[in-house]
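RECORD TYPE: inverse folding
INPUT: structure tokens
STRUCTURE:
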């Protein structure tokens, strides 16, 4: 936490994604918003660092990190991305665990 600022929050409603973060300490996640890099609080995980990697415009923008998405394969991940964010902008983030659950 920098300068006593309150941590933002980040949710992981897709269980396999949250499990990857808990088990491996990091996960790649696609969201429909573009936010700056910062520390966030993830329920049940703890403090994590969210880092913007790139805007996602085509499948190749996520192909190289799909093994670290929590999904079994790229097709499964893409299906969920399109269900949640079809017609919206898409941004790839790396979320890394910084400290344990609070």
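DESIGNED SEQUENCE:
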């Amino acid at each position: 936490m920098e300068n006593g600022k309150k941590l933002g929050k980040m949710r992981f409603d897709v269980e396999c994604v949250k499990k990857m973060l808990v088990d491996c300490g990091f996960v790649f996640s696609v969201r429909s918003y573009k936010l700056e890099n910062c520390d966030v609080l993830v329920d049940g995980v703890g403090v994590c660092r969210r880092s913007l990697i790139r805007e996602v415009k085509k499948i190749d923008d996520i192909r190289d990190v799909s093994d670290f998405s929590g999904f079994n394969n790229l097709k499964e991940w893409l299906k969920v991305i399109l269900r949640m964010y079809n017609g919206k902008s898409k941004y790839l983030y790396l979320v890394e665990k910084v400290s344990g659950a609070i």
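NOTES: The mean pLDDT is 93.
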